Amino acid sequence: QNGALTVMVGGQQDVFDRASPMIKHFAKAVTRMGESGSGQLTKMVNQICIAGLVQALSEGLAFSEKAGLDSKLVLDVISKGAAQSWQMENRGDTMVDDEFDFGFAVDHMRKDLGLCIEQAQQVGAQIPVTKIVDQYYAEIQAMGGARWDTSSLIKRLR
């Protein structure tokens, strides 16, 4: 709706060239990743990375809370260094505030991670952390969080 998507495309160059102008109406970036299937595989890489980032951010913030730190101040400080990420910038405060009724649903992430795990087996890739995070998301679903934002992983740690 606001043209902020990053789109990864697989397919023939001539088809990409024809479709690209339309895709740019709803995307800030459109990249042809290679032949058919390459876009989907790239999206899997994206989801694997996000799953690990959200789990690490959840652990860091839960640690901060248990240690008695001001977690919003911690976020302000560490967001200026190497730990900075889109997840931190866009979900850190809501994670601290325990607000998850928006964003990308856990159900959707579990579907995506299931596809990643299946594809990893097919190509011989090892993704042990992703498998663990997928199980953590299953715990969130069991807590009633199927529609919560993926940043709700922190709820397991509180």
What does this structure look like?
It is built from six helices and two strands. Strands 1-2 form a two-stranded parallel ribbon. Helix 2 (38-66) crosses helix 4, helix 2 crosses helix 5 (106-123) and helix 2 (38-66) packs across helix 6. The protein has two domains: 1-36, no CATH class; 37-157, Orthogonal Bundle (N-(1-d-carboxylethyl)-l-norvaline Dehydrogenase, domain 2), CATH 1.10.1040.10. The protein is globular, with a radius of gyration of 17 Å. Helix 1 links the parallel strand 1 and strand 2. The protein is mainly α.
Q: Summed up, what is this model?
A:
With 158 residues, this protein is mainly alpha-helical. It is built from six helices and two strands, in the order E-H-E-H-H-H-H-H.
